[in-house]
Every structure is written in C-alpha cells, then in structure tokens.
C-alpha cells in the first residue's frame, strides 16, 4: 500500500515538473492523500518541530478540523499599502491557484491547497504587542491535516523551483508523513495555572463606556463596541497544546483556534462566524446581545427568556442583523433571514443569534464578503466610521488580531472566516486577553464591565482557572 502511494506521489511530482518547463513565478505543487485518522491534538504535539508556523482550527461541534504546519508560501500585503489587503490576497491566491499543479482526487471542501491565517482589526502600524502578527498573515501550510468526521487527509504543498529540489522534498514529505502516522495519543503533560492577573485600567474603561453612552444620547452614533484587556502571568511558559485541549473540551459550540507566529500564539474559542461558503452556499451569523448562563436549569431559562425580550439587547442585535443582511444581499441571491433571533447557548454565556443565508452570485467571492462585513456592528458599531473613530480615540487598546477575521479558503472557492473574540495572545509565560461589549444608549458601565468579566471566562478556564 505504502509502495503504491509512494509511486503516485513520484508520478505526480514528475508530471508537475514537466508541466513547468518554462519559468513561472508561482509553481505550487499540491498533493493530497487519505491517511489514518489521528487525534488532532496528538498531531499538533507531534509537530512541535514546526513551532512558530502552526495553525489549528476546528469549527463548532468539530465539523472540520485543520492542523497546518510549516509554510509553502505566504501572501504578503505589507509592501502594497495602497491596495486593499483583502483584494490583494484574493488576486494573489487566484494567480497561485491558476498556475499550480494540484493532485487532489477527493475534491472535498478544505482538501488540496488551503490558504489559512487572518487579518488585524485595522491597518494602524504601531502595534508593539502584536509585533509577530502583521496586518495580513495568510499562508499555505506546507503540511495540512484535515479531519472530517471519520476521514483524514494529508496535503503536502511545496513551491517547486528546480529538478534538484525534488528528491529532498520527497524525503521531507515521507519523513513528516511517518512522524504524524505513528499511533499517537495526546498527553496532557502538566497542570498549570496563572500566578497573577491584572485588569488594564478598569476605571478608565468604565468612564469610556459612559462617554460613549453620552455621545449616543447626543445622536453622534447609535452603537459602539468597546473592548478591554487583561494580562496574566504564569511561572513558566504557557503550554499551548494543553490550553487547546481545554478549549476543545470546554467550548464545543465555538471555533477553537491557535495561530502561531514566531514565538507568540494567538489562541481562543470564538462562537462568532463571520461567513462560510461551501459549494456557493453562504452562511453568515449575527451574534450580539449577551446574558450569563444560570447555575440551575430554571435560572438559566429565566436568564434566556429575559435576554430574548430585553429591549437593549434586541436593539444591539438588530444593528448587526441589518448590516449583515445588506452586505450579504450585495453578493448573494435568495437571501433568507429569520424575523427574530433565537438563543445560542455557550458554556459560560448565552447570546442572541440570527443566521443569514444566501447563494453566492456568479463572480462573487468569500473574501469580498469578508471585506464588506468587517467589522460588523458586533465588533465596530453604527455608523461604522463614527464608531471606529471613537474606538481609535478612546479605547486605549491595540486590538491587533482580536475581533478580526481569521479562517481559511481552499482552491475551490470554499472557506470560512470567524471573528477572533474570546481570545488571547500568548507570549511565553504571559498572556493578554481581550473582551468587548456592544454599547447602546441605555448601557450601564458597571453591567458592561461585569459582562466583559464573563467573556474572559472561557479563556481563563482554559488557562487553568477554576471557574
Ligand atoms: C466583542 C465581543 O463580543 C461581541 C459578540 C457577541 C456579543 C457581544 C455583545 O453582546 O456585546 C459583542 O458584540 C467579545 O466577546 O469580545
């Protein structure tokens, strides 16, 4: 069996080489084969030697899981500030795909070459905390394990430049495949917990909320999302794979992700889908309006019932629905939006939830919708420009990749982006956590502050906290 697969791989790579007799700028060779199902966390641990260029992603209910490691190519938009970064990524990806050699007999969403990563919330340049996360970081992992149900696939991606390289690349592929094919189980190697944590300027944040409500009452804007930061210190480097394991166990209704860049890792469990496209069917999600979970089933029911009838939360939610509907209608036919939200229950919180669906029109793309949606009023506000201006002037926080689009897109127009909330930036033995709240005219600073505390919970629990 191994012999036959090796043969296919060799044939495939030599076909690719003969196709590229003339020099081309992008010569991506991509080869996919089925592998034995592995524990995704074990794969993540086994690929420690790729630390700094790994990406882990799983969608809610573990519908699909990706573990990417290494980098075949990175799309860099930093040098081209005059152009829109989403459009530039789109254009470059199209060029790369058109001139690539793809051997993927499965053709399932997420197999074959996949571009993964994310974007910062905004384009401001000075982000010392986020020095390892540029404003755009989208790359094609050299190796990508995709798990869908009981099936697993391994894709190898490489930029082939010359005949001489071929042999060493074949070896590299075989060795790596062997490493991740070993029967492996994830080991949770130690208990850990933060030593201290501290809020960054909580009183100032509450004053900013008050100022926002005043401006809203004066009619200067309708809604703004204000975030704050909490930092925690450990007495040793934070074990990323253990945090991932905790998030997967505790936050099954969310996208669980970890994106490494250099020595840092951006990690989290976000319930907020931005947009998903599969076979031209598009799904976006409005998630805004929050209440805690109750300690007993009846308390939980009451909190949910209160939330779904609460005017302030319904208003916060409706701003998001209006905007997402309009943005989706620009790219889709047959758009469907339910007339009222339902509850979306997470481990520590419940939200108001409205799905928005449609069929992507010919010539329209996932990234175009990402561009139009970001930031939705669940992260920015209404009107968008007024809210963003308030955020830049008053928030006193560098959002970096917090509340920004992260996700993937394959070579067949499928893909999915989430909004990176309930997240933290791990830097060796320290972590910065972020949480924000939608502020409307009746918002109470103290209540919003408590809401942010609950929004920290998923990450604090995963970082070894008890509550
Ligand atoms: C900005 C965050 O949450 C957003 C998403 C869902 C509900 C929200 C809210 O009710 O305020 C926020 O708009 C965050 O968790 O950091």
Overall average residue pLDDT: 92
Q: What is the straight-line distance between the termini? A: 49 Å
Name the bound molecules.
Answer: the ligand C=C(O[C@H]1C=CC=C(C(=O)O)[C@@H]1O)C(=O)O
Strand content: 25-35%
Number of domains: 2
CATH class of the largest domain: Alpha Beta
Low-pLDDT runs:
none
Please count the beta strands (DSSP E, at least 2 residues each).
Answer: 23
Specify the helix fraction band.
25-40%
CATH architecture of the largest domain: 4-Layer Sandwich
Major sheet details:
13 strands, mixed
- The structural class is alpha+beta
CATH homologous superfamily title of the largest domain: Anthranilate synthase
Overall 3D form: globular
Kindly identify the CATH topology of the largest domain: Anthranilate synthase
CA-atom Rg in angstroms: 22 Å
Tell me what you see in this structure:
The chain is an alpha+beta fold and 467 residues long. The protein has 2 domains: 2-181, no CATH class; 198-233 and 271-462, 4-Layer Sandwich (Anthranilate synthase), CATH 3.60.120.10. The protein has 11 helices and 23 strands. The protein has helices spanning 2-19, 40-46, 85-98, 163-181, 202-217, 240-250, 297-309, 311-329, 366-373, 384-394, 445-462; strands spanning 28-35, 54-58, 64-69, 73-75, 101-103, 114-119, 136-140, 143-148, 151-159, 196-199, 223-233, 255-261, 264-270, 273-278, 281-292, 332-336, 342-345, 349-360, 381-382, 405-410, 415-419, 423-427, 430-439. The strands form 2 sheets. Strands 1, 2, 3, 5, 8, 9, 10, 11, 12, 13, 19, 22 and 23 form a 13-stranded mixed beta sheet that branches. Strands 4, 6, 7, 14, 15, 16, 17, 18, 20 and 21 form a 10-stranded antiparallel beta sheet that branches. The model has no long low-confidence stretch (mean pLDDT 92). The ligand C=C(O[C@H]1C=CC=C(C(=O)O)[C@@H]1O)C(=O)O binds at residues 225, 227, 272, 287-290, 316, 351, 378-379, 403, 421-422, 435-438, 455.
């Amino acid at each position: 069996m191994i012999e036959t697969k090796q043969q296919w791989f060799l044939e495939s790579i030599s076909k690719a080489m003969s196709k590229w007799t003339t020099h081309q700028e992008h010569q991506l060779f991509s080869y996919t084969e089925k592998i034995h199902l592995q524990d995704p966390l074990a794969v993540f641990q086994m690929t420690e030697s790729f630390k700094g260029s790994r990406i882990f992603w799983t969608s809610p209910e573990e519908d699909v899981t990706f573990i990417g490691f290494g980098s075949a190519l990175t799309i860099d938009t930093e040098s081209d500030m005059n152009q829109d970064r989403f459009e530039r990524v789109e254009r470059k990806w199209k060029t790369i795909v058109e001139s690539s050699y793809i051997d993927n007999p499965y053709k399932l969403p997420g197999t074959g070459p996949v571009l993964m990563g994310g974007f910062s919330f905004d384009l401001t340049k000075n982000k010392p905390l986020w020095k390892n996360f540029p404003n755009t970081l989208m790359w094609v992992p050299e190796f990508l394990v995709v798990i869908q149900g009981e099936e697993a696939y391994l894709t190898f991606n490489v930029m082939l430049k010359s005949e001489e390289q071929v042999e060493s690349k074949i070896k590299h592929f075989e060795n790596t495949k062997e490493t991740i094919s070993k029967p492996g189980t994830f080991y949770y190697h130690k208990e850990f917990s933060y030593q201290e944590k501290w809020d960054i300027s909580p009183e100032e944040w509450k004053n900013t909320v008050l100022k926002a409500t005043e401006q809203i009452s004066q009619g200067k804007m309708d809604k703004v999302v204000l975030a704050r930061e909490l930092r925690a210190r450990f007495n040793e480097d934070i074990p990323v794979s253990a945090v991932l394991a905790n998030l997967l166990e505790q936050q099954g209704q969310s996208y669980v992700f970890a994106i490494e860049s250099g020595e840092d890792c951006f990690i989290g469990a976000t319930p907020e889908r931005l947009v998903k496209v599969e076979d031209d069917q598009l799904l976006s999600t409005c998630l805004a309006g929050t209440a805690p979970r109750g300690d007993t089933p009846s308390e939980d029911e009451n909190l949910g019932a209160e939330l779904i009838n609460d005017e302030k939360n319904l208003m916060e939610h409706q701003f998001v629905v209006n905007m997402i509907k309009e943005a989706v209608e620009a790219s889709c036919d047959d758009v469907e939006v339910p007339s009222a939200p339902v509850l979306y229950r997470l481990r520590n919180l419940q939200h108001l939830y409205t799905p928005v669906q449609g069929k992507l029109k010919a010539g329209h793309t996932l990234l175009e919708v990402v561009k139009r949606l970001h930031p939705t009023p669940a992260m920015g506000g209404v009107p968008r420009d007024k809210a963003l201006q308030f955020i830049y002037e008053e928030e006193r926080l560098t959002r970096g990749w917090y509340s920004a689009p992260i996700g993937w897109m394959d070579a067949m127009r499928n893909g999915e982006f989430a909004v990176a909330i309930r997240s933290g930036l791990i830097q060796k033995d320290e972590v910065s956590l972020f949480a924000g709240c939608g502020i409307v005219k009746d918002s109470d600073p103290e209540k919003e502050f408590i809401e942010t505390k609950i929004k920290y919970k998923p990450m604090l629990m995963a970082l070894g906290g008890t509550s």
